[in-house]
Amino acid sequence: MENPNQPNLDKQPESQPSGAQEALQQAEQTLRDATQSPPYTGSSDISQDDKNVAMLAHLLAPFFGFIPPLIFWLMNKDKAGKDFVCDQAKEALNFQITVILAVFVSCLLMIVLIGILLFWLVLAANFVLCIIAAIAASKGTAYRYPFALRLVK
Fold first, then answer.
1. Residues 6 or more apart whose Cβ sits within 8 Å of residue 25
2. Of the candidates 35, 58, 36, which has an alpha carbon nearest to the alpha carbon of residue 134?
3. Are 91 and 144 in contact (CB under 8 A)?
4. I need a surface site. Which of 69, 73, 99, 140 has the fewest CB within 10 A?
5. What is the C-alpha to C-alpha distance for residues 24 and 84, in angstroms, rounded to an integer?
6. Model pTM?
7. Which residue pairs from 127-135 have beta carbons closer than 8 angstroms and sit at least 24 positions apart in sequence?
8. Which distant-in-sequence residues (6+ apart) come within 8 Å of 61 by Cβ?
């Protein structure tokens, strides 16, 4: 006879995920969507000039900071048919603002020496991610930086 107070070890565990697992899966999917799906969903026929300008917005950013993406975004934000350039310049601008904040924090942390390593990691990540973004933009693919604060909307 089975005792109701003792668990039955012969039963198979339920295949349905618990509430916490569902919430975790939903949060993971939301994070994947936020970092991988580009906001630009315009037409696929982007001119070569637009691709080049978007590429320049990403390529000039590691050397001149937020100034080139800001200029490209301000020049193209109100023009019809320049959605791709506007989106990519805005993305580069947001990432450069994030980089500026990270460099500031790493400079503060140089007091405890970890900031020296963090400073060089931030600069290396900025350079590598900007090159990846420039390559994607030159192909006409909208790129989203993985950890950028989306301050300019």
1. 17
2. 58
3. yes
4. 140
5. 33
6. 0.69
7. 127/62, 129/95, 130/58, 130/59, 130/61, 130/62, 130/92, 130/95, 131/58, 131/59, 133/58, 133/88, 133/91, 133/92, 133/95, 134/55, 134/56, 134/58, 134/59, 135/55
8. 68, 69, 92, 95, 96, 126, 130
Residues in the chain: 153
Structure tokens at 54: 């978007």
Distances (CA, A) of 50 to 9, 37, 44, 140: 64, 20, 12, 9
**Residue 36 backbone phi and psi in degrees, to 5:** -110, -30
> What does the block give as tokens for 116?
């020296």
CA atoms of 92 and 98, how far apart (whole Å): 10
For residue 140, give both structure tokens: 């006409």
99: three-class secondary structure by DSSP: helix
